[in-house]
Amino acid sequence: MLKSRVKATYAHLWTSPAAARRRARRWTAFAGALVLSPFAALAVAAVGVLPAGVAIALALTAGPAGLLLLTALNKEKSPPRRSGTLLIARTLTGERTVDLSRIERVRLMTYFSRSGVSERVLLVRDASGTSLGLTCPASRRALRRALERPPGRGPQPRVSRAALVHLGMLPAPGRLAVHTVTVWLATVLGLCGYLCAVLAIAV
User: Tell me, what's the pLDDT at 116?
Assistant: First the structure.
């Protein structure tokens, strides 16, 4: 009853989970198409329609753009609004609403800029399937309070150790350093492997 009243009060802000998931899938498909565009160009080049150099150009432009888009799809773009256990925030794909009383999973995502500076995003997924990347301090505090509440009868959320350390709920500072180095190595090796695969096929 209370949840229904809250939804009615914030009806102008409420975004249904199904609508949020549809928008996220469309944008994810678009980003994936950018990443795969060099290989599509290579397939067209194989029949002589395009030069192989087009695929290399796409690997240097469209590929990184698609990867960058994938990292930005779930991130909140402005401080969220709270309504009870509901967290409402704008993302690149529109507004999303996650229910902090029905958290299903929390992971720590680390991304790197061109300068090598890392950005940490707490990716929260609730029972409806809606995901939201939390970046601002207010969001992190709300998430921590939700995780510190006494467990209910439903399944407990799966929270990665790196996320717990980032939230200050697990005293293991070295864990974040290991997480950062691992993600950095995976990012560098993944990008190198991507470019090498395109070049190996194109040449």
Answer: 64
